[in-house]
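Progress report, Aim 2. The chain analyzed during this reporting quarter is listed below.
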Amino acid sequence: MARFILAVLFFFIGSADAQAQSHWEYLSKTPERLIGLLDLPDIVAGGCGPAPNRTTTRAFGAPSQNGRSVGTIYMRDDGNAGCGLMIEKTGGSKEEIPTLESGYEIPAAIVYERRGAWLRIRLSVGSAWVRHADQKYFLQYPEILRENLPYTLQSWDGMLRATPGRSGRVTPLSSGWKALLDRQLSIQYLGSRRVGDEL
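Predicted structure tokens for the chain:
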């Protein structure tokens, strides 16, 4: 059963709607697929709550510091009202950056492309490039399923396939499993396979 769940999760993770405020919904609004998450420890500084030192970073329209400036990324912390990664655009407008948790209450940027030290991250509309030289903070998909995201999505429709790929035979879930679809079910990552250009 775990192998079936895993096979569908790989297909599902890049295109499904998801739990409110966790930003999985942004993944369904674009044909692009995440390739990983980017932790920004100098900005996030351990997540919500007071932090003595938080930095900012610039975002660009191309993978170059000579590229068009998109804005500045920073951490918004409103105490009990919540916190999150934000970008102040070059024109002065501010918006929240879609994130997924890389750890307990640790928001990480959604990464669509990587070119050396440059990573293209998801914005609420479109994307921008950030430079992050320390690649240990880039959490590559699907390996992040081993420890960082070892669970199903709350919006998973319960579709399982016996083999990877859209043409794989569908295995229906029992009624007991269907009753649990609104929860995040723990999984054990076993492996992955590429079918065409899809993981």
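Residues 4-22 have pLDDT under 50 and may be disordered. The first strand starts at residue 36 and ends at 38. These observations will guide the mutagenesis work planned for the next reporting period.
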